[in-house]
Amino acid sequence: EMVMWMVKSEKILIQGLSKTNTGNFMGFAVGGPFMLNHTLVVYNSSLTGDTTGKLKVMLDGREILNHWDEKGNAEFEAPFLLWAARRTEWDVSMHDHDVLSIKPSINWAVGPWPKRFQQAPQGGLYYFKLPSGVEITVSGVDYMSAVIKMAPQQGQSGYCGNFNGIAEDEFEPPAPGSVPPVLVPAWNRAVGEGLEQVSDADNLFKLASPELALSAALVQQATALRVGRHEDEMMASPCKDAHALDEAEQACVSIPDADLRAACMADFCLTEKASVVDDAAMSGVMEERLSDGRVPLFVGHGPCIDIGGQALRAVRTKGVRIAMECQELLREVGAAIAGVVGAQLKTEGTCELVVRPGTDVHDLLDFAPSGGGWVDADLSGGVGDPHGGLGGASFVAGVEKDLSWNCWRLD
Questions:
Q1: What are the E-state strand segments in 267-335?
Q2: What do you get for the CA distance between the two ends of the chain, in Å?
Q3: How far apart, in whole angstroms, are the C-alpha atoms of residue 225 and residue 323?
Q4: In angstroms, rounded to a whole number, what is the distance separating the alpha carbons of residues 270 and 268?
Q5: Angle at which helices 242-251 and 258-271 pack, to 10 degrees?
Q6: Which element (helix H / strand E) includes 86?
Q7: 3-state SS of the chain: helix, strand, coil percent to 5?
Q8: pTM of the model
């Protein structure tokens, strides 16, 4: 196999895995600072000898989306990091129609491009929503067919290109006579930066393998080391010797929570990277915020509704389109304005803050969301003039199920 850079940038890293003897695309891995150094891996199970050709999904070495309902559907949520779904068929309310509009350079034997994702594609249909607006749609057709949707990154390189608008510095045509004329449009040779094979040190597939996962077992192993359990447990632990254990303890001593400190030690021994200490500390901060109610809580997929099933008044932003930014806006504004009780965001839409009746929405003008502020029409009327003619109760009780929406509540 060959591991290549699909997207290589300062914050976003996406790698692809191909079979060198056939050229088949078999898997991809996503990581980097935008993922808080967590790693998502998706691969065709035939890589491990499974003849069924199913797609497997791993987050930090743990399999997810592997428990399906009677229709073969599954969902997974890691707040602030990942929302993932498996479907057996294309869902117009969830999937991006632009995927079907892609024009392949030639028609391969597996059929027209849309058929790779429509109806009931082989291996299932997977959809991933990641931080920074990154979305990935995947099916198991032709081992794996995948579409990455994201904003261009500064200094971006890799096989997906640099997105500078100049096609000539992305590829060059094949040598004359090297391939049949019908294949020429699909046989361009990539040129540019980031086309080297990924080194073992940077290989996200290896870093996220089950043996190196930061799992509950590793936490227990690190805890066993910390309290001096039996010697054979030490031999099986991620810390190779007593010196490594001492270094891990010193590196993670500032983490107050015992379980997080043990997890930090295990990760430190596995990766030998000091950055894991910052990640563990951030996890502690996130847990603290969740416990005291200062962080938005995910309610479900759909517009926010009250206990009676009615929509609440919503005030739209002009340019906040990323889920994490929408949640941060809710946290910031909700801390200052008691009437702000939630937020909702539709795919391809902008963030909307949900307010209880009687809230003076003009107070929102004290805040300036990115992308141009607030939609003026939603601020008209001030108090008691609910957007869309709906009022709702004073809190978010649930959602009107719609997979194209996300709803958060501020408790």
A1: 297-300, 304-305, 313-316
A2: 49
A3: 39
A4: 5
A5: 130
A6: strand 82-87
A7: 30, 25, 45
A8: 0.54
- For tokens 């540019």, the residue is 192
Alpha-carbon gap, residue 379 to 399, rounded angstroms: 23
Sole residue written with tokens 């291996």:
123
For the cut 90, the answer to whether the pLDDT of residue 135 exceeds it is yes
SS3 track for 208-245:
CCHHHCCCHHHHHHHHHHHHCCCHHHHHCCCCCCHHHH
Output 275-278 pairs: Cβ under 8 A, ≥24 positions apart: 275/37, 276/37, 277/251, 277/252
CB 329 within 8 A of CB 351: yes
Taking CA atoms, 139 is separated from 123, 150, 254, in Å, by 6, 18, 44
What is the pairing mode between strands 62-64 and 135-139? unpaired
Mean pLDDT of the chain: 77
Write out pLDDT tens, residues 29-43: 999 989 888 899 999
Q: Give the C-alpha separation, 79 to 406, whole Å.
A: 12
Query: What does the block give as tokens for 147?
Result: 């579409």
Structure tokens that stand for 201 in this block: 């040190």
Q: Out of 52-61, 208-217, 275-284, 318-327, which region has the weakest mean confidence (pLDDT)?
A: 208-217
Comparing 33-42, 53-62, 78-87, 240-249, which segment has the lowest mean pLDDT? 240-249
